[in-house]
Amino acid sequence: MSRRRPFARCGAPALAAVGIACAPIATAGPGCAPLGDAVLLPRDIDETSGIAVSPGRPDVLWTHNDGDSQLFAIGGDGRRLAQYPLRPRPEDLEDMAAAECADGGTCLYLADTGDNAERRDPGSARILRVREPDVTAPGVIDLEAFPIRLPDGPRDIEAIFVLPGERVHLVTKGRNHAITVYRYPPPLRPATVTLEEVQRLTAGPQSLLDQVTGASASADGSVVAVRSYQALAFYSVEGGTLTPLRNGLVNLRPIQEIQGEGVGIGPDGLVFLTSEGGPLGGPAGMRELRCGIAPRG
Q1: What is the pLDDT of residues 271-285, one digit of tens each?
Q2: What are the backbone angles phi and psi of residue 150, rounded to the nearest 5°?
Q3: How would you classify the pairing of strands 141-142 and 80-87?
Q4: What is the pLDDT of residue 281?
Q5: 42 and 73 in contact (C-beta within 8 Å)?
């Protein structure tokens, strides 16, 4: 769980103290550019931690609060469309993804994997799944739960992405160990399953601003975005592993997120970012970027 970390805006003394300078958003590589200004989210979505774009309705976005037991549907303007209590209640919900279900249709996948102290018991961390709800019929959502353990002990995990064929991946935060990508060996099943390590994205643990807070895959599975508090990294998917795109590291400091958390890839190079409201209880926000990423073929 990543509650209330005191991140300042670009140019503030806190950033200067750690030697971080402001810089424009990268124009090489994916060439991301903001579309309009940030939009504010409703007050009851003040700790938005994950975001996913509906594959069938790109005007519908799904989000949740950090560690919460509610799912929200919102529009591109940040307006709440519907709200859904979750059952069973997640212990520490950190990120989410939208992708095709194994048997067709669209599913939402939620990472109940937060573990700041890295002490959760094996099997207590879970991937949760539900068919994409109807935004015109809000109500309690009954989740399918798939318990997991990691092969090398507990890790704090705040990022999930799902590739076609219901290939579920989790990315560790990099708090005390290297940022690592793990794969759930399909199919999803109710017994506790040990994840498989795919690759390590760093040689060791990362400083606070470079720790991973969210991830997302394009609908065709050719591009994956992994974000931290201050940057967005794009990868191509090759042979089941992630390869950094040339000039694919995007500096997010200029958009002045208070506490950047979620990322969701939509169609036509659209990328949505969410930020928590910060330690002083301000409103959470969402930014929309357009990036030069395109599906294969």
Answers
A1: 999 999 877 667 899
A2: -105, 150
A3: parallel
A4: 66
A5: no
**Nearest 5°: phi and psi at 291?**
-120, 150
Q: Which of 221, 275, 297, 272 is nearest to 59 (CA)?
A: 272
pTM of this prediction? 0.90
Beta strands in 138-187 (DSSP E): 141-142, 144-149, 157-163, 167-172, 180-183
Reported as a single tens digit per residue, the pLDDT across 156-211 is 999 999 999 999 999 999 999 999 999 999 999 999 999 999 999 999 999 999 99
SS3 at position 209: helix
Kindly indicate the confidence band of residue 242, based on its pLDDT and cuts at 50, 70 and 90.
very high
190, 146 Cβ separation under 8 angstroms: yes
List the structure tokens of 262.
């979620």
Measured torsion, CA atoms of residues 204, 208, 211, 213, in degrees rounded to the nearest 10 = 160
Q: What is the DSSP letter of 14?
A: H
How many residues are given for the chain?
297
Q: What is the pLDDT of residue 51?
A: 98
Q: Are 53 and 98 in contact (CB under 8 A)?
A: yes
In whole angstroms, how far apart are CA 132 and each of 138, 160, 162, 187?
11, 17, 14, 19
DSSP 284: P
Contact between 8 and 100 under an 8 Å Cβ cutoff? The reply is no
Taking CA atoms, 248 is separated from 226, 260, 280, 290, in Å, by 11, 18, 33, 14
Place of tokens 């926000």: 285
Say if CB 196 and CB 183 are below 8 A apart: yes
